[in-house]
Amino acid sequence: MPHSFEELRACAAREVAMRRRVYPRWVEQKRMTQALADRELAHMEAIEAHFAKLAEAERPRTLFDEPAPGGPGQHEGRSNHDAR
Questions:
Q1: Which of 11, 37, 49, 81 has the most CB atoms in a 10 Å sphere around its CB?
Q2: Positive or negative CA dihedral for 62, 65, 71, 75?
């Protein structure tokens, strides 16, 4: 069964929360270094952010919604209102 990007984002968010809770204890117990904990947490935060962008792009739109940032109709440095 395929997973939505929102489901994957939520899973990554839970993993980030778990790592924030567990990693300090693991560093204290010398099970991992602080540098490794920081790097692994940053990786999972990046995964969460990536899935958040994909989930936003996947969200159904109505006629009155603003386009997703960087999506169709958006030009770098200009909004749709600036287009001539």
A1: 37
A2: positive
Gap between the Cα atoms of 66 and 68, Å rounded: 6
**pTM exceeding the 0.85 threshold for the entire prediction:** no
Contacts of 74 (CB under 8 A, 6+ apart): 67, 68, 80
Judge contact between 4 and 55, C-beta under 8 A. Answer: yes
Confidence of residue 72 (pLDDT cuts 50, 70, 90): low
Helices marked H in 1-84: 5-28, 34-58
Is the C-alpha dihedral spanning 84, 65, 70, 72 positive or negative?
negative
Q: pLDDT for 26-47, tens place per residue?
A: 999 999 999 999 999 999 999 9
